[in-house]
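ok so i was messing around last nite and threw this chain in just to see what happens. nothing serious, just curious
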Amino acid sequence: MKSLATEIVINAPRERVWGILTDFDNHNNWNPFIRSFQGVIREGARFNVTLQPPGSKPMTFRPKCLVLKENEEFRWLGHLGFRGLFDGEHIFELMDLGNDKTRLVHRENFRGMLVPLIWKSLEPGTREGFMAMNSSLKEMAEQTESAGV
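result:
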């Protein structure tokens, strides 16, 4: 297994960050990494998600939502091809730091036969995509916060 983890502190309440993160219809308006969600997103359901790491073509997956715990955690498990070839468990965790600050932990656990073969080419672009998304989410939440919305 390989893991990739990023985090950022956002100067906005956890509920505001969660609201933007789970406004699935609007990701294409602000998110440079996750370009779209399609379908009903609830625990146990499958949906379509299109990811686009920097410098790469968009990739659409049909993961299963594992956790959708309001204001705390959103987690899905997707596969490339068949299970065990290349599996990714994508995780967003929000932690209330008090004083209207939120820590976003954005990570993914990768498993499967292809992971060791492509990790060196996968990791840099994926990390860059995570960080770009985190920064955009921070900007959206903090702009909304300063506007009093």
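not much to say yet. Residues 2-147 form a domain with the Alpha-D-Glucose-1,6-Bisphosphate; Chain A, domain 4 fold (CATH 3.30.530.20).
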